[in-house]
Amino acid sequence: MTDLDTPYALGAEQVAQFRRDGFIKLKQVLSADTLEAYGGEITRLTIALNTEQRPLAERSTYDRAFLQVMNLWERSPLVGRFVMGRRLGRLAAELLEVDGVRLYHDQSLYKEPGGGLTPAHADQYYWPLDSDRTITAWIPLQPVPPEMGPLGFYAGSQSVAFGRDLGISDESEARISANMARHGFAFVSGGFDLGEVSFHLGWTFHKAGPNHSAQPRSVMTIIYMDAGMRLVPALNAIQANDRDQWCPGAREGEPIATRKNPVVWQRA
Questions:
Q1: Fewer Cβ in 10 A, N or C end of the chain?
Q2: Which residue ranges form the domains of the chain, and what is each CATH number?
Q3: Each residue of 235-263: b (16+ CB within 10 Å) or e?
């Protein structure tokens, strides 16, 4: 599938928009053929590897939000081909305004029919990394209309310190949403067309609604970081777990150049 590797035409005004808002949605990033070719394997693995068997009513808010399986690229050469695609990697680097990006990890987010709210949060709370040059590509494997729980973003919130110490929870939803409203940060949400992909910074606050449809919402995410990103001491047990899971062998103060963190795209 050539659109995995060929450049996507990104304009200076879109880079400026991302710098200002901390997120951007781009249309027609991947073709229907590409999403069909790789999406079936991503969904199959997500269902096969998922360990959550409780009914939705018996789960916590976090566990009702989605089924989550990490680093599928290590489980399947087909998914590995998708995750290492140079088009998405180049977009990540150009939006971050860096010369190259490494993989931090991937994760599949499968919101079941009836699945609940994904509470407001910032991803980088979980990551022991030394700069804000991190970015997540949120890649729906099918169209995501509003009733299916698309991702939404608080525009410009990447500069807000309040809430950075809160993981995904009922508390984070209540406190972060209230703070965003108090300070006038607009919440930007809406459906995703097939082939549309969003990118957001690690410190941009975001959330997703419940899935009120009868169909699952299948999404693949790829988290990239500046190719020169260094490991820092973990601030909590969650960051320590992330370090051990996704950066094995990395040393504090040095670039995270482990076997799990290959360079996806580098400027020539």
A1: C
A2: 2-249 (2.60.120.620)
A3: eeeebeebbeebbeebeeeebbeeebbee
